[in-house]
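dude i think i finally got it to work??
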Amino acid sequence: MKLLIAFVLSVLLNMGAQAMAQEIEYQFGVRWSVNGLASSVDMQNIMLDFKGVPSEQNMMLPATEYIRNGRNEVQFYAWPVPSAVPFESHHELRLSLEYWEPGQNPNIEAKTAFEVVLRPGQDNPAPEVVKVDDNAPLRVVADAIQWDADYFRLEVPFTNRQPMPTWCWEEGDVLKDNDTTRDSLTREYRRLHALFAAGDNEALLDAASTRTEELALASGTPEAYVRDRFSYTMYFDNPDLYQLNPFPDEPMTLNLGADNRVAWLTTEGVQVPIRFNHVQENDVSSRVRPYFIRRDGQWEICR
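look at this
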């Protein structure tokens, strides 16, 4: 009898494993375009991209590691420069969520789950859902889309019905927006800055091991490959081209995202505490932009 039960359990487990192996799991990306506007794209209030000058662009970034089970949200900011100038009638914001199978080329094989368009220069502008793929694992929550004209922010909520891992940005402690949190995180930034000053590439990559693990999982690539992509040796090996900026003396701004579980610091505007100035280019720098959670009493690089 015990042997029969063991055999049945083995068959069931094997069938379950085969079913899971046959499931199609998708990777995700966010695509946006503007015409002559500055822009910024956040997911779960974590900044993915920032362009502070007017541009003509159509970009997509992988975003699997920013999407959780259930409800999610993209925040798409777009504004004229200077911001006091009104939008023009031809200005247009387009935002879409894309999905593709692992191994496919997202640049040419990604499918559009949904697309939202806003023309902020028109009278009484309202977001419009112009495309929906009913078979996509991501579903836009159309009646909850909002355009906040005061903050130039298009908020696009959506739901994900594909099972996902629990990401680090979901698991961090809920942080308080106060000087204590800011000062504690400043000390961690200062520690990392010292590692950059020492050129300790291995220690910096070790500090971001959680990020490496999760990006490897999200992209379906080996951890060694992801770790190598984040290597900082380019800066350390070329001191005639890159110069580490001194650590800021003034108190910085604490930023919180992902339901106050993710934190990062900025100086003026969206400038960052750790950056390499380009020696041969005026006012150009490469920014190191880590996002942190606090877990088990320790700061941890999550993204």
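Confidence is low (pLDDT under 50) at residues 1-23.
im so relieved honestly
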